[in-house]
Structures are given as C-alpha cells and as structure tokens.
Amino acid sequence: SSILIGGNWRSESERGKSHAHTGSGLAADEEVCTVQTHTFPFSLRHLSHLLLSFYHPPTPLRYTLQVLSDLGDGEKIGDQIIINWVNTQLKEGGKDSQISSFKDKLISTSLPVIDLLGTIAPKSIKEELVKRGELSDADKLNNAKYAITVSRKIGARVYALPDDLVEVKPKMVLTVFACLMGRGMKKADG
Predict the structure, then answer these.
(1) DSSP letter at 78?
(2) Residues 6+ apart with CB under 8 A from 138
(3) What residues form DSSP beta bridges with 10?
(4) Is residue 71 part of a domain?
(5) Percent of the chain with pLDDT over 90
(6) Are strands 38-43 and 8-11 parallel, antiparallel or unpaired?
(7) CB neighbours of 180 closer than 8 A, spacing ≥ 6?
(8) Does some domain include residue 3?
(9) CA distance 10 to 88
(10) In a domain, 50, yes or no
(11) Which of 25, 40, 91, 157 is deepest in the core (most CB within 10 A)?
C-alpha cells in the first residue's frame, strides 16, 4: 500500500527505508504527516480517535431516537404506538391504507406514506402525481421518490431513501413514520 507523506507518495517499503535512514524512531503504527511545512508524528489510531471525538455528525438513528424520546415525553415509544398512530391518522383522514408492521408489503407502494402526508399536511399531495392500483417497479419507485420529497418539503427530517421504502427496510421505514409522527404531533400541538 502507499501513503502520501510530505506531498510524495511512498510505498510501505520506501517509508520503512526513510524511517531507518533518518533514524526517526517512529513506532510501526505511526506515520509522518506533513501539514504545510510542519511534520507531526502520530499514530493513525490516535488520529481517527481524535477526529471522532471532536466530530459527531447527526445520524438518522440518533435523530429518530431523539424524535421517539420527544414523542414519549423522555421515554422511547415502541413500534406499536407509531403503527397505531399512523393507522388512526389514516382512518381519521378517510384513507383506505393501513399498515400492520414496518415490514408490511403495502409500504413498497409508498401509498401509506403518501396518504399519511395528505392527512397531516393537507394540500401537500398532488394526486395526479401518485400512482395507485397495479403498480410496476418504476411506479413504486416514483411514488417513493414523491413521498420522500414531500416529507422533506413539509419539514420532516427524513433520512431514508426511496429504495428503503420500495424494498421495505423496516428500520428505515420506522424512521420515516417516526419523523412524520413527530411532524404530525407538532401540527396538532400548535
């Protein structure tokens, strides 16, 4: 393998020779990093730990756990509570779609998500853009793209991708419905 050291690519063997030649005394797991004109010896393990300790980007899971905790007044809420909320909203909104779990095959059509969006954010869905009935794989993907786009447009922080809905990936489906529940509850609160 090769590494960029001081602006020059060097192979493992060349790096070893340069350390032996200069007598730098670096341990086997240390590299030399040249930043502008300064050289710092450090362990790659140490650098990755250092970077991770200062940079913790928000993750979809962390955000979803926060939403779930917020919805449950500090306690995480379970799957069944979200499913019941989704089905209640759909029923109250006069929609026919219902889900039995986050593995429900109907989710592959994205119709439960689209219908839920129509109930929590009226006028957000343009029915002429939604495919219903017998759906091809392309129709399912287009519905999923539309559902994700509208979710984000109404302010739900949805990290899932259209394929996550089409392939019915339960954990990602959970994040979609949890974020929409959070958005729907905000609407109800004020």
Answers:
(1) P
(2) none
(3) 3
(4) no
(5) 51
(6) unpaired
(7) 86, 113, 116, 117, 120, 151, 156, 158
(8) no
(9) 63
(10) no
(11) 157
